[in-house]
User: Fold this.
Amino acid sequence: SLSLLLFSLFRKKKRRIEELTEKMALDVGSSGDWDGRWRHVQKFLERSGPFTHPDFEPSEETLQFLLETCKILVIGAGGLGCELLKNLALSGFRHIHVVDMDTIDVSNLNRQFLFRSKDVGHPKAEVAADFINSRVPGCHVVPHFKKIQEFDESFYRQFHIIVCGLDSIIARRWMNGMLLSLLVYDDGVLDPSSIIPLIDGGTEGFKGNARVILPGMTACIDCTLELYPPQINFPMCTIASMPRLPEHCIEYARILQWPKENTSIPSLLVLMCLPLYGVALDGDNPEHIHWVFQKSLERAAEFNIIGVTYRLTQGVVKRIIPAVASTNAVIAGTVPSRENTALFAYVPLNNYLVFNDVDGLYTYTFEAERKENCSACSQVPQKLQFPPSAKLQEVLEYLTENASLQMKSPAITATLEGKNKTLYLQTVASIEEKTRPNLCKTLKELGLADGQELAVADVTTPQTVLFKLNFTS
Amino acid sequence: MADHKTNKDQRYDRQLRLWGDHGQEALENAHVCLVNAAASGTEILKNLVLPGIGAFTIVDGHRVSGEDVGNNFFLSSDSVGKNRAQATTELLQELNTDVSGNFVEENPDRLLDNDPEFFHRFSLVIAVQLEESTCLRLGSVLWNAAVPFLVCRTYGLVGYMRLVVREHTVVESHPDNALEDLRLDQPFPELTNHITSYDLDNMEKKDHSHTPWVIIVAKYLQKWCREHDFQLPRNYKEKEAFRQLLREGIRKNENGTPEEEENFDEAIKNVNTALNPSKVCVSVEDLFNAEQCENITSQSPAFWVMVRAVRDFVQAEGRGSLPVRGTIPDMIADSDKFISLQNVYRERALQDAAAVSRHVESHLQAVGKVCIWGTLHMWNAAFLRVVHCRALVEEYGVDTVHKDEITSCMDNPDSEMVLYLMLRSVDCFYQQHSRYPGVYNYQVEDDIVRLKLCVHSLLQEYGLTVNVKDDYVHEFCRYGAAEPHTVAAFMGGAAAQEAIKLITHQFVPFNNTFIYNAMAQTSATFQL
Assistant:
C-alpha cells in the first residue's frame, strides 16, 4: 500500500543518509533554539497515537532529522512558494533550497508576503530566502535565481522531497520527467531509495489542488494530463473576421495588428524569406498594453461590441489568472501535511486533493491512478501508427494535439543509414528552416521503415521519448 | 494616461478580477477585530492585510512565550515576554502600509466586563483559541449588537470554524455553474420578433451556417410546437426527436450530403440547455416568502427592498418570471447576428431592471426614504442569497441542540462530527481542570481517563446516544492542545476568505460549522 511504501522508503533513506554523512548536522546551539520552540511539533514526533502508522516509532531523533539532515527543494517562490517556505521553516525544516527564475512584480504583493514594494525587480528566490532566514533563526534557505532546466540530476538527487508551487504545466511535466529519470532499477525492480517524492500544488482564484507523487509508483503528472483544463485559444477565423466578444477584439490586436505595425519588413527581405525583425509584445510594458487596448477599442467599435476595458486587455494578453492570498494559504497548508505523513506518520487517504471555497468550503480527495501506457512513467514503448503515405506534418500534429501527449514543440529525430538525423526541429530558427520541407514529405519518402524508432524531444520532458513507428495500411 | 493603473490597482489587480472595485472598496472600509494573536489568528490576519483590509485591531492579554515564537511567523525571538497583541501587530502592519493596525493589551474577559460596547465598532470579530466561556460571552454581546462573529480554532491536527451571524445577505454569489437565461420556453415579445425576422429556409448558405444556435433552436421549437399541440419536448424521446428535426435542418449539397454547419451542431448539443424551464429557483422563492420581504419598513436593509421589488416585478411585468439576465454565451455566428441577438437580451434586461427600480422607488417612497444606491446593474436576481447562522447559545442549549444532525452524522463513527464532539469535550475538560488535556507528557495517560469522563458527561447532558471511539479520546490527549503551524495556516486561509465574503457580500459563506481533519485531509460542514 502507498502508506507502507511512503513510510518505509523514507526511513530507509533517512538511515542511509545518516550512515553516509556523519557530520552534516547544523549546530543547533548556534542557531539559538530557545525553550519551547518546537513544542507544537514535538507532540507529533515524540508521542504515539492510535492513528499513526504501525511502523511509526515516536522518538526525539525525528525532530533532529528534520532540523539537521532533511533536505527539501521548493520550486517556485510565488504565491504558493512563499507560503510553503514559511510552513516548512516553522515545521522544523532547516535545509531548504528554492528555485525561481522570476523577478518580483507589483501585482505579486497582494499575496506573496515575503516581498515588499522596495523588492520589485529583484529575484524572487533571493528575496524570499533572505526574509525567511532572518525571520526564522537557524533556517537556511538557499536561493537559486534560475530555471529548473538549468540543473541536472546531480542537483535534484540530493533532496529528500521536492515541493512544487509552479504556475506552468510544462514546468511541472519537466520536473516530473526529471524525477522519473532518477529512478534506479535493479534487475527490473525499482530501488525505493531512488524515489524522491514530489508534492505538487496549484491554485487559481478560489480553487486549488495538491497531490503526492511517488515517481515510478503512483500516478505521475503525465498520467493525469487530462485533468488540466486546456488553454483557451479562439479560432483564427473568429478573430480575423467574425469577432463577437471583447476578447476576440483584443486577440485581433495582439496577434494580427501588433506584428504588422511593430515589425519593419523591407519587402526585399520578405521576398528572400529572411527572418523578420520586430519588437515582441511585452505584457509587462504598460505602453504596449495601452496600444493593444486602443486598437481593441477601435476593432470593437467597428462591430458594435462592448466590454473592452484596460483590465480585460491586460488579462487576455498576459493570460492572467486571478489570485488571492487565502487560496494559496489553504493549499500550502495541506502540502506539509502530505509530505509530513512520514514524519507525523499519518497517511492521507488519497493522493489527490481538490479545494474550492466559492460557495462555503469544499474539499475532495481521490486516488489518481497510473496510466498503463503513460508516455512519461510507464516504460511501455509509445506507438505511432500511421500509413507510410502520411506526411510528417500529421505526426507532428498528433504529438501536439493528442490529449495524453500534449507536446509543445516536439523535435523528431530518427536513425537513418546508421546516422542520427533530425527530421524536424522548431526551437532553433535555422534548423527549423532547414527541416521545414520534411513536413510535407511522406514517412516513406523520408526513408522511415515499419518498426523504426523515433526519438522525440520536447520542453515537457528532460528526457527524449522513444516512439515505435508502426505502418498501417 | 488615465488608463494607466494606479499603484493600488496594480498591487490588487489579481484579486480585483475576483471581487471587483466595489468589493475592494468594501474591504477597505472594514475594520476587523482579532481576539488572540495565536498563530491561527495571525495567519488569518495576514490573509486580510495582504488584500488591503481597512483596519485591524488585535485584542490579546497574553505575553509572548517561546512556544508562541516557534509556530507564529509574526513573532521573532526577541518578542518573548512582550505583549502578544503588540508584537504581532508590528509584524503584520509591515505587510501592507495601506492598512491601519491597532492593538489592545487586554484580556477579552476583562473587556467584556468593563466595556462590552468596545466590540460594537467592528465590521467583524474573529476569535481564535478562545476558551469556551469567554467565547460564549463574546458571542452573546456580538449577537445582540448584530456584529458578525467568526470563531476559529486549531487543535492538534483538527481545524474548526464557526460562523455566527443573524442574517447575511449575498448580492453577488458568483455561482460556478449557473444555467443560462435564454427564455426559449417562453420567449418575450422582442425575442419572438427577432426570431421571426429570420427566414432560415431562404437564407444564403453563408448566413445559414452563421446563424446563432439560439435562433435555430427557437425556430425549430416553433415548428415543433405547431405540430405537437403547443407542447415543448418533455422527455428524452421527444428531445431526441427534436434533435433529429434539427439535424434535418442542416443544408445539403448537390449530392445530398449534409454540409458542415457547426452552428447546427451547437444547436443539437444545446437542446437540454435550451429547454431548461425559465422558472424562479427555490432559493429565490424562499426569499420571496420571507417575512423581511413581506414587511418593508424604513428599517428594511436595501437587500430586502430589492427582493421585494423583484417579487413585485415577478407578479406584474414579469408574469411569473424573474427579470431577464441579459447575457448570452458565446456561440458560432457572424458578428452582426450575434451582437444583434445579444442586444435583444441586453435591452430587455435593461427594461426589466428599470421596472424593478420603479418598484424599489415606490417602496422607499412609501416608507419615506430616498433611493441612494445605483448599483442595480450589478445584481442578478437569480443569484441573490441569504444565510442565517444560529446563535452559539442555541447550539449549546440542551433544548435547542441539533441532536438529529449530530446523531445521524455519527452513524459513521469516523465522521468529522466526532472531532466536533471531541472539541466540545476538551472544552469541558478545561472547565473542570483549568487546563487542556495532555499538555505535558506525564499527564497524557491519566488525562485519557479524565477526558473520557468528559465525553460521557457531554453526551449524557445532551442526550446523544452516539459512540465516540476511545481512539479519538487518546488522539486528543496526544495533541496536548498543540497548534501546529501548517494546520493554523490552512485555517488562516479558510477563515480569511470567509471573512472577505462577509465583508464584500460576494460569494456564499459556509453555514455554520466547518471541520478540517488534517490527518485524513478531509473536511465537512455542519449546521449546528
Remarks:
- Chain A touches chain B through 83 residues (CB under 8 Å).
- The longest helix of chain A spans residues 2-20.
- DSSP finds 15 helices and 17 strands in chain A.
- The CA atoms of residues 398 and 405 of chain A lie 8 Å apart.
